[in-house]
Amino acid sequence: MDTYMHLLKNWTTLTSNLNKLREDQVKILLDYELANDPRKTFVERLHSRYTMLRSQRERAELVAGI
Q1: Are 14 and 39 in contact (CB under 8 A)?
Q2: What does the DSSP assignment read for 1-66?
Q3: What is the mean pLDDT of residues 37-62?
Q4: What is the C-alpha separation between 54 and 12, in angstroms, rounded?
Q5: For 34-49, how does the pLDDT look when each residue is reduced to its tens digit (9 = 90+)?
Q6: What is the pTM for the complete model shown?
Q7: Where do the structural domains in the chain lie, given as residue ranges?
Q8: Residue 46 near residue 26 (C-beta atoms within 8 A)
Q9: What is the rounded CA–CA span in Å between residue 58 and residue 41?
């Protein structure tokens, strides 16, 4: 978990690295941010990325089941 925490240091670091993370990694960062003095813009961006990744995974699972 500590390996990702440095990404929450500032907005530039977060946005430049967020697209490199897996769904589970983004969820860890989102949960951490929510539990530790959450910043609105960080939470919104993390949630946006998380829901996009989750949606892609769920869609692939649905299609695979057809």
Answers
A1: no
A2: -HHHHGGGS-HHHHHHHGGGS-HHHHHHHHHHHHHSS--HHHHHHHHHHHHHHHHHHHHHHHHHT-
A3: 97
A4: 23
A5: 999 999 999 999 999 9
A6: 0.90
A7: 2-64
A8: yes
A9: 26
